[in-house]
Amino acid sequence: MALQRKAEPRVRPLLSLGFLLTFSLALIFLDAKANFGPINLLRRLVSEISIPFESAAKQIASPIDAFINDWTQVGSKNEIISDLRKQNTKLRLNLLTLGNSQRELTKLHETLQLAGLGNYRIVPAQVMSIGAGEGFGSTVLLDVGSDDGIKVNMSIISGNGMIGRVQSTTAHTSTVVLLTDASSNIGARIAGSGEIGFLSGRGLNDSMRLTFIDPKAKVAVGDRLVSYGVSGGIFSPGLPIGVVTKVETLVGSNTKVAYVQPFTDLSQIDLVGVIVSKSKWDPRDSLLPNPTPTPTVTVTITPNPVAPSPSGSAS
Amino acid sequence: MRAIRIAFIAALLFFSGIVESTWLSMVALPGLVPPLTFVFVMSFAVRRNPSSAALLGFAAGGLFDLIPPSSTPLGMSAFSMALVAFSISLIKPYLVGSLSLPIFAISIAAISDMFVKIILASFMGVTQSYTSDFFVNFFSLGLYAAMLATFLLPITIWIDSKIVVKQKTILFR
Asked: What DSSP element (H or E) covers A83?
């Protein structure tokens, strides 16, 4: 009896555990294998009770959940943003380069077209820098020099015509004096009439001044100018220069002057051509661009088929 | 008073089950949810006799099997938690007076619980979901359980003491 009493406290928990484990196994069997109806009912009941609590808890937790998601994905999101930024920069650069390339291609095409028309051989050159912007000076530095066959006084052209001449050269660069430079003074001829004079620059922002040799030269606003070269000289003749915008006679000196606007915007040059071999014949005025046609407006009055009534109201 | 105590613990376990399936599921770092309900049960179990602990484990496990989105058959968690709670209650005399040993015991209990579930699942022919990333899951579960026990053990001791004090007060009246 004493032994039984001592063993009882140890046996009882084991018995209760055994009962619980057996009951659990029975439940597992009933639920998993036999699909016991009352267990399904119990499961549904617990679901009905717990789902409102779970929904409430999830609603409370949703901002925190969103924060945790953002926080855990912040690294990958930053990587994606960084990659997209890099791609964006690359695409922008590509677009810019493409735009520049297309613009350069157009300018080169125009320059080559002009050179082809005049039968000139040119060396394409890129403007490396623009110097002496202040005052009356206007010069540019080209990326071609004596090694490329460039010599002093050679003519520089763009797609629209002459822009200057070579002032000095190094092995790989050339300094060009633009037509607008105060030191620039070249011979020029009025297309058609053939009146000649000296064209001098007055700075990048002012039009050039053409001083005629003949004080009685016939010149009018709108007349176009080409370069005047001497046969056998290095300077190319017949290159389009600009258009006359104003004519005046200097009082007291009996000298006629014309103010000329260049065909090329000299503040925006980047790709040019250096004429290294000029034509054997003078192209005269054939290189001048065709004049822009002025639109003519013709107004034709058509009689109104419906005459207004004397009272002013339509019936 | 006993009924109130049971109801209180049942409500506590129910809400811990809700919290586990909603809030703690958000921080399931290596794919495992921190076992809040389990740690609560074990924290109570280390202060009770083996029969009570087994019954508590059985009830909590049963509840855990029923609360959605549980996919385990009813009785599976009940079986494992009853067994583990009973076992942890048996070693109660060795845990008294230590701060770290109960935490360590609960951590081992969590791993044992999972192990028992794997054995049960293998008997039922379902092993895939339990045995993938076997060691990682064991380690994570043990770590989670230890971390939770650090906070929950003092709380359960406090709750237990409050219930007992109230009971005594009522009895003395």
From this structure: helix A37-118
Alpha-carbon gap, residue A141 to A164, rounded angstroms = 12
Range(s) of the domain holding residue A196: 119-277
Is the minimum CB–CB distance between B129 and chain A shorter than 8 Å? no
Of the candidates B23, B26, B54, the beta carbon closest to that of A17 is on B54
Contact status, residue B50 vs residue B97, Cβ threshold 8 Å: no
CATH of the domain at A139: 2.40.10.340
- A216 touches A256 (CB < 8 A): yes
Decide if A17 and B82 are in contact by the 8 Å CB cutoff. Answer: yes
Tell me whether residue A230 is in a domain.
yes
What is the pLDDT, as a whole number, of residue A115? Answer: 79
Using the beta-carbon criterion (under 8 Å), do B75 and A61 form an inter-chain contact? no
For chain A, which residues score pLDDT lower than 50?
A: 1-5, 133-135, 311-315
Q: What are phi and psi of A310, to 5 degrees?
A: -60, -30
Mean per-residue pLDDT over chain B, rounded? 81
pLDDT digits (tens, 9 = 90+) for A246-287: 888 877 777 788 899 888 887 778 888 998 887 776 777 777
| CB proximity list for B30: less than 8 A, separation 6 or greater | B133, B136, B137, B140
The two tokens of residue A133 are: 């912007």
Q: What does the pLDDT read at residue B58?
A: 92
Three-class SS state of A231: coil
Residue pair A288/A224 in contact (Cβ under 8 Å)? The answer is yes
Strand partners, A209: A200, A259
